[in-house]
Amino acid sequence: MSHKDALLRVEQVVMRFGGFRALDGVSFRVAAGEALGLLGPNGSGKTTCINVISGVYPPSAGRVFFADRDITGKAPNLLARMGINRTFQSPRPFLSLTVRENVELAAAYGGRGSLPMGIEDILDFLELREFAEKPAEGLNSAQQKRLDLARALATNPRLVLIDEIAAGLNPLELRKMAQCLRALASRGIALLVVEHLLSFLEEVTDRVIVLNAGREIFEGSLRAARHDQEVIRVFLGTAAHAG
Amino acid sequence: MPNYVRDFVFVLLPLLVLLGVLPFFYRNELLLFNFTIYFALAQGLNVIYGFTGYLPFGYVGFFGVGAYGFALAIIHLTTSPALALAIAGLAALVLGVILIPLLRLSGAYFAIANLAAAQAVYHIVSNPDLQDITKGPYGVSLANVFAPRLSYYSALAITALASVVVIWFRNSRFGLALQAIRDDSLSAAMAGIPVVRQRTIAWLLSALIAGLTGGVFAWHISVFYPETAFDISISIFALVFALFGGATTLLGPVIGVLLLYGLYNLIGITIPQYFQLIYGILIVVLVLFLPQGIVSLVSRRGIRVP
Amino acid sequence: MIVHAVMAGLVFGCYFTLVGIGLNLIFGVMRIVNLAHGDFLMLGAFAAFWLYTLLHWHPLFSALAIVIGFGFLGLALYYLFVPRLQAARDAEMLSIILFFGVQQFIEALASIAFGSSERSLPGAILGRGPVRLFGQAMPAAWIFSGAISLLTVALVYVYLYRMRIGILTRAVMVNREEALAAGINVDRISAIAFGIGLGLAGLSGVFAPFMLGSVTPAIGGDINLSAFAVTVLGTLGNPLGTAVGGVIFGISMMLMQTYLSSWANLLPNLLLIGVLLIRPTGLFGRETRRA
Question: In chain A, what residues touch C89 (CB-CB under 8 Å)?
Fold first, then answer.
């Protein structure tokens, strides 16, 4: 990928918590409209990576560029307005607001220009319309995950970071969610998908990078990753998840 | 009719009219004044607690600083009461700005730090070493500007201001965003909401309301001591009134003040310990069985409460 | 003079550790803020006062009875309030308000029962004449109270680090969910911690008449602020950090009283705010709001 094509460039990012290096010099790129999978065993730094990109905390070292602008350490609300958004591993909707209010707020504050998808479209797309006037508190976990995604979409993002969205979904919900993510990619929204469940990930994308202990150990196709000796070795402990 | 008009017409307007005409029929003006003060304080506290979730145990700090701002402006600068009121509001805003860093704290830490801050201000104001400036523990007397009627209606105006802020928060995108921040500040930031700016605005508005109320309190009672103006039970009363009725609504704090402050005036003044006893039990029962306040009896059925 | 202030500060530091440690244990285990902590301390002080005045019990003897009595009271209060509280979405916040109600209740009950006059016990009960410690003369009652405090804190240490149930308690402190998942009876551990927390509050009350002067039903609020200052200084949720906080608090209080006495009552407040603002995460290792 040439320099110009990259929507997101992560360069030599280091994240230290006390003495612990959660990320130890990670670099990768995501092109506009591309879906990239981010794999790795528990504690390998995947979520930390998403947190750094989405501005939850600034990295200890390294830089992050978005559309050729340096966004290292920028606050999440500024990033949202630039077109970066995310979902959370355990969903975090505004529990006391209705589903519609959740989505409307994101559109009002984070929206860039006119939405290609209206709020009603987003509610339909994520099958949330029937709950639109209910407080988010009353939704089940799968519905809350969809609401997280709906809120992200309402900001008209160019890049969405997806953190373990498959966990806890039943097979039907999994299939629908994969369809959903593919549809987003086909609309030109870039995705960075952190995922444990390989069978889910391969329905969304083929290009992955694999992290272990805060370092990148593999970059390439998911098919190749499955035969890579080092990837197999670090995943051996979590083979049950390898689907 | 839009909701904000409805809230104004059916809740705030009747309250203002009632408090406006009562002094012509009812002699105990101090009692009416105290009710008005608590309407303002309960709504002011609602602005910060109800909409952002910060529990300001030291809310009385703003009230006390306002009272002293008013008094010292009269004493040292011999200003008019109107200008002194503005200074009272400004003093509370300054304290609010100084305390902005506290907003970084969450949950219990904020509540405790805020309480400590109010206590610290009290200890400074009441310190005998500062007698030349604050009159120390000996209190202030403002008999030369005493104007009970005018100060009563000023208090009413401040109540109106506080209620209008609540109506605005309740019926606007701004207020919705504050509630989103309260529910989850990281999610709110991710939705593009400028979290720090929004809650700072709510914090300062809340401080301003308490400061103005403190100023008008100083004006009305005209003789007071540091322990009157910084009495921690002022924070607590306002908090419990708002909670009891139901925070995040306009009607809740009004109901809370009417019922609980009414109860206080029936039994609290003659036998304060027994009132405190009932009060304590009431708070415990409230938290365990009705944490969203009395209005939640209606709102949980899906009916919109003003 | 400065040596004396520091030595007295150390002795008071031991005592303030005892004052704070129960509060901290309860917060650490169940994220519940016992805002009535100072009022349980006050009740302990009155219990010791009456046990001495009416039955001539030595404070050490009443201390034992009070620890046991308050411990059981704590168990009862735990089952009455805490599980219900923890079911709520914002338990930490609601706990502050709930225990504020408990505080009001206790204070009202105490002032109905005891009136508002000041009660004190003669220091001579705990030993006559000044005691010299490293060349510094101090009232025997201080030394006695400080020593009992030190002993109690040591026992809490043994409980948390040497006994099985204490080790389980620390596991709950570190991660409640993990502890539940690992099959630890979190409810029972919490109930016991609550009982111990209240027992420690009562115990520190026994020595309040000697260390803090006379007691009235209204002292709870001020003691709460000191207890919070101590625990926040030494990491909220980390009971042994409290010892560090207690000593820092004791010494700075004595120094303030020696050199700047009219400003001494500002100290707990400023220490609290200062620590919270300067090291909101570091000192007590808990995340604050990020956005």
Answer: 95
